[in-house]
Amino acid sequence: MHLDPVFLSRVQFVWVIALHILLPAFTVGLASFIACVEGMSFFTGRTVYARISQFWIRIFSVAFGMGVVSGIVMPFQFGTNWSRFSDATANVIAPLLAYEGLTAFFLEATFLGVLLFGRRLVPRWVHFMAAVAVALGTLSSSFWILAANSWMQTPAGYALIGGRFFPTNWWAVIFNPSFPYRLAHTVTAFYISTGFVVLGIGAWMVRARRFPEEGRIIMSATLWLLLVLVPLQIGLGDLHGLNTLRYQPTKLAALEGRYDSAAPAPLTLFGIPDDARGVMRDEIAIPRLGSLLLTHSWNGRIRGLNDWPVDRRPPVGPPFYAFRIMVGAGLLMLALVVVGNLMRRRDAFVTSEAFLRACECAGPLGFVAVLAGWTTTEVGRQPWTVFGLLRTSESVTPSLTGPDVLLSLLGYVAVYAVIFPGGFLVMRRIVRAGPQSQAIDEPGQGRRAMLPIARAPELTP
Amino acid sequence: MISALLPDFVPIWTAILAVGIFLYVVLDGFDLGVGILFRFAPDLQSRNLLMNSIAPVWDGNETWLILGGVGLLVAFPLAFAIIIPAVYFPILVMLLALCFRGVAFEFRSRDVAHRGFWDHGFFLGSVIATFVQGIVLGAFIQGFKVEGRVFAGGSFDCFTPFSLMTGIALVFGYGLLGAGWLVMKTSGALQKSIRVQGVWCLCGVCACIAAVSLWSPLLDLDIALRWLSWPNSLVLAPIPVLTLCVALLTGRALRNGSEAGPFVGAIFLFLLSYGGIAVSLWPMIVPHHYTVWEAASSPKTQAFLLVGTAFLLPTVLLYTAWSYWVFRGKVRGDIGYH
Predict the structure, then answer these.
(1) Which of A80, A106, A390, A450 to mutate to test binding with chain B, by most B CBs within 10 Å of its CB?
(2) Is A400 on the interface with B (CB under 8 A)?
(3) What pLDDT score was predicted for residue A324?
(4) CA-CA distance, A199 to A218, in Å (whole number)?
(5) Which of A21, A111, B13, B173 has the least CB density, counted as fewest CB within 10 Å?
(6) Is A352 an 8 Å CB contact of chain B?
């Protein structure tokens, strides 16, 4: 069997980033959620909010710690496996990564300590401001990382000299054509992912009759928030799609499963893509809907992949299926949120066993959508790392052999297979212990006693 | 072209990166060193004390590794693109060991049933991460096979007798830093036993520094000429002389009851060794192939990042200093995990 270092390096990148992305998908939203609850606590003075906040801060710090550990791996991937890409693009995107490191390090590391350990040490408003600063830090991280990612999708503000990219206009580099849409779509997705985890845990608190007061507050607030965010996200997704149609038509054709150009174009619901022959088999399609959704006109023309040479086309299967999973997850979430808000009358949303169970099952739905969306956009970018300009096959480290990469991939799989389930179990223990076990301002917990990751008292020997 | 009007930022970025890497080496060095000495702590209570002495600071220390990696990428991308592939497996092993160590750190106090397992994980993770960092250092000093702008050797070329020796050297070195830190943080019988371990580490460090100093000129004619040609040998003579003096003073501080002396001494030993390596290699950042100027990113890139770094980096440093101030003094057995 031939081991292809390019393919294996891609698999390795998928493995380390897919697991890493789950943590920011959770912590970006959770940081803002904690800042809101801290705000409620500060302005109303009710202790139930402080209890809720303390509970989520514990979970946050476990997720954040794992995010740091798996995040250290990421910049080194650029060097170990994608050194040609690094050499070609560093002048343009490396400063964006460095700004991510500096601002995130500054805001998160500085204020996370205060948020975790400082409730007794600083005035209440400082604690609230620390929560806001941590939330801003996570958003700043997203800003810079997505700027770099978007530049790879829709490069701008550069000059290409001797196969390497040089910056000509930083504003154009950062605010490249797909960046505003990607930023809005991704951050909203992160908020929604967190929202569904929070909703699911709130539902469990109510259903298990362990912490009904906290559970009810959590569920009610989250349902309002999601009622705004989920429809907003569908609108943002539409705008993002139009942007893709304009700047990355091959990706759009792949995720639509469109091989032949058509005007008007139908919307393919399902089918089995066949890249070798360039056709969609067993297609189920709705006439004209494709044109209507993508061009917002009755007869709009959509270009198919067969318009491009074979070596400039992405594979259709992964983006096509992943896009349908993402949209399906989105519609499920929309249904659940609408039903939940309709059930507010006579408190049905906290008394209906079926609805509470549905919320618990929907907890991971946001992560499913995030991973599917990520697959859609990154596989849809292929066969390029910098869209249309730098090929993936020309980005990989030339000295690597297939067995080298196989060995490192196995190493990452083995270690992550221990660390991630371990972290999940720790978070589950914190959830089981619930918010009431978190005595606020508990005396006798000296500062130096604190480990940087949250600690549940019942687990302390 | 605008970039022609921009000043030469390369010396500034070389300095920033040099300081950043040195900070990483000292900061993560002492907490990896505590992990190395962890195996030799006599009982559970002392192990908990050792853990608590670095608990509030270790993840901040490790974050410098990200800034170091990204700093090399942004300031000297060509060096990044050649060096990191050349040390593919040491980097891999280091990342995995650090992951495991970080988690072991957190889990040992929660998962009491498997505490022995996590304790071993913490010790081994620390030793392995340190050892492979030493291999990276040795491979870097020896240089890499380069063709054009890419590394042209094999992924296992970095494992040589010389790099294995620098790996061992760093284990002793971080062990010494860890001992210095722990002397400040502990007292009584535990401190006494750590002083003894510190002396062992110091002997190992001195032997290794001597070995590297004799071996590297033999490996590399450029390094030999740099140190031994007249008048360089006179100008550079203070480095080995000072190293010897600092080593003697550190040894005395370990034995005579000085609290901060061993840690300060260890830092100066690292500073002098670091300076020695810099003298050997300057101005090459990919030894034998590319200077810092040839490997540097575009002036526009360096200028753009310098604007933000100029005030973000001092802020990070201030915060770091403040957090060490908050957690100053001896670790106490009655606080924390016990």
Answers:
(1) A80
(2) yes
(3) 93
(4) 7
(5) A21
(6) no
Give the largest Cα separation in chain B, rounded: 67
Please determine, for the modelled complex, whether the ipTM score is greater than 0.90. no
* pLDDT beyond 70 at B275: yes
d(CA A178, CA A249): 13
Determine the distance in angstroms separating the CA of B272 from the nearest CA of chain A, rounded to an integer: 28
* pLDDT at residue A402 greater than cutoff 60: yes
Question: Which residues neighbour B163 within 8 Å (Cβ) at sequence distance 6 or greater?
Answer: B134, B135, B136, B137, B138, B139, B142
**Distance, CA of B215 to CA of B282 (rounded, Å):** 18
Nearest-Cα distance to chain B for A363, in Å, is: 25
Sequence-separated (6 or more) residues with CB below 8 Å from residue B312 = A102, A103, A106
**pLDDT on residue A195:** 93
Residue B168 has pLDDT above 70, yes or no: yes
Is residue B27 within 8 Å of B61, Cβ to Cβ? yes
A436: DSSP letter: G
Chain B residue numbers with beta carbons less than 8 Å from the beta carbon of A408 are 88-89, 92
Q: Are B122 and B54 in contact (CB under 8 A)?
A: no
For A142-183, the DSSP string reads HHHHHHHHHHHHS--SEEEETTEEEES-HHHHHT-TTHHHHH
Who contacts B199 (Cβ-Cβ below 8 Å, separation ≥6)?
B251, B254, B255
* Residue A242 half-sphere exposure toward CB, CA atoms < 13 A: 15
**Mean pLDDT score of chain A, rounded to an integer?**
86
DSSP result, B100-126: HHHHHHHHTTT-GGGHHHHHHHHHHHH
Q: What angle do CA A443, A113, A437 make, to 5 degrees?
A: 40
Structure tokens at A328: 């399906």
Round to whole Å and give the CA distance between A12 and A408.
Answer: 8
- A404 contacts chain B (CB < 8 A): yes
Phi/psi-derived region of residue A296, left when phi > 0, alpha when psi is between -120 and 50, beta in every other case:
left
Q: Which residue of B has its CA nearest to A165?
A: B298
Q: Is A342 on the interface with B (CB under 8 A)?
A: no
Bridge partner residues of B286 (DSSP): B290
Taking the C-alpha atoms of residue B203 and residue B182, their distance in angstroms, rounded to an integer, is 18
Residues in contact with B156: Cβ distance below 8 Å, sequence separation at least 6, in sequence order: B89
Q: Tell me if chain B has a CB within 8 Å of the CB of A67.
A: no
Q: Touching check for A413 and chain B: CB below 8 Å?
A: no
Coil/strand/helix, residue A286? strand
Which residue in chain B has the smallest CA separation from A112?
B60
Chain B CB contacts of A412 below 8 Å: 92, 96
Q: Convert the pLDDT of each residue in A280-321 to its tens digit.
A: 888 888 888 888 888 888 888 888 888 899 899 999 989 999
Radius of gyration of chain A measured on its C-alpha atoms:
23
Which CA distances in Å does A207 have to A6, A52, A357, B334? 49, 17, 8, 40
Q: Which residues does A156 contact at the CB level (< 8 Å), separation at least 6? A: A169, A172, A173, A176, A177
Query: Is the CB of residue B34 less than 8 Å from the CB of residue B185?
Result: no
Give the per-residue pLDDT at B219: 84
Write out the E strands in A30-133: none
Res A119: pLDDT: 73
Q: Quick one: DSSP state of residue A302?
A: B
